[in-house]
Amino acid sequence: MGSLFILGAEGPTEFVDIAGWFLENAWIIPALPAISFVIILFFGKKLPYKGAEIGITAVGLAFILSVLTAGQWMNQVDNAHGSEGGHGEEAALVLVDDDIELASAEADSEAAAFFAEEGEEGHSVVGRNAVVERFTWWENGGVEFKVGIMVDGLTVMMLFVVTLISLLVHIYSTDYVDGDRRYTHYFAFLSLFTASMLFFVLSENVLQMIVGWELVGVCSFALIGHWWEEKPNSDAALKAFLTNRVGDMGLLIGMIILFWSANSWSIIDINEAAIGHDIGHTTLFIASLCLTAAVMSKSGQFVLHTWLPDAMAGPTPVSALIHAATMVVAGIYMVARLYGVFWEGYSIAGSSFNILALVGSVTLVGAGLLAFVQDDIKKVLAYSTVSQLGYMCMALGVGAWTAAVFHLFTHAFFKAGLFLGAGSVSHSVHSFDMKTHMGGMRKFMPKTFATFMICTIALMGLPPLAGFWSKDEILVGTGGWGFFGGTSANGSYTFALVMGIIGAALTCAYMTRVIYLTFFGEWRGAEHMHHDDHGDGHDDDHGHAHEPHESGPRILIPLYILSFMAIVAGFFNLPPGFITGSEEGWQERFFHYVEPVSSYFPAIKHGVPSYSLAIFATIVALLGAFASYYYFFVRVNRQSPAATELANGLTSTNKVARAGHTVLKEKYYLDHLYTDIIAGGTKGPVADAAYWTNQNVIDETVNQVGRTAVSTATFVYETIDQKLVDGAVNLSGSASEGLGEVSRSALQRGKVQQYAAIMFIAATVIAGLLMVFI
Amino acid sequence: MEFDNNWLLSVMTFVPLVGAAIVMAIPKAEEELIKWAALITSLVAAGLGVFLLTDFNYDNAGELQYVADAQWISVINSRYIIGVDGIALPMIALTLLVVPLCIIYTMGHFPEPRNPKALLSLILILETGMLGTFIAQDLILFFVFFEVVLLPMFFMIAVWGGDDRRYASLKFFLYTMFGSALMLVSFLAMYFLADGTIVGDEANTFSMIALSDGATVGIARTSQLWIFAGMFVGFGVKVPMFPFHTWLPDAHTQAPTVGSVILAAVLLKLGTYGFIRIAIPMLPEAAAAWAPFIGLLAVIGIIYGALGCLAQTDMKRLIAFSSVAHMGFVMLGISTLTDFGINAAVFGMVAHGLITGMLFFIAGSVKDRYHTLDMARLGGLLISAPRMGWILGFCAMASLGLPGLAGFWGEFPAILASYNPAAILPEATFRGYMVVAALGTVLAAGYLLWMLQKTAMGTPKDEFVDNPEITDVKTYEWIAWAPLLALILALGLYPKPLFSTTDDAVVKSLQVNVMDDVPDCLNLDTDQGEACFDDLREQFEAAG
Amino acid sequence: MLLVQFLLLSAVLFCIGVYGVLARRNGVMVLMSIELILNAVNINFVAFGAFNGTVTGEVFALFVIAIAAAEVGVGLAIVLLIFRNKRSVDLSDVDLMKG
Amino acid sequence: MVAQNIFFGIMAAIMIWAALRVVTTKNVVHAALWLVIVLAGVAGQFLLLGAEFVGVTQILVYIGAVVVLFLFGIMLTRASMGEDENVNLPNRIVPATVGVLLFGLMAFATIDYWRDAELPKDGSPTTVEAVSDSIFSDFIVPFEATSVLLLAALIGAIVVARKE
Question: Is C96 part of any domain?
Answer without folding.
Answer: no
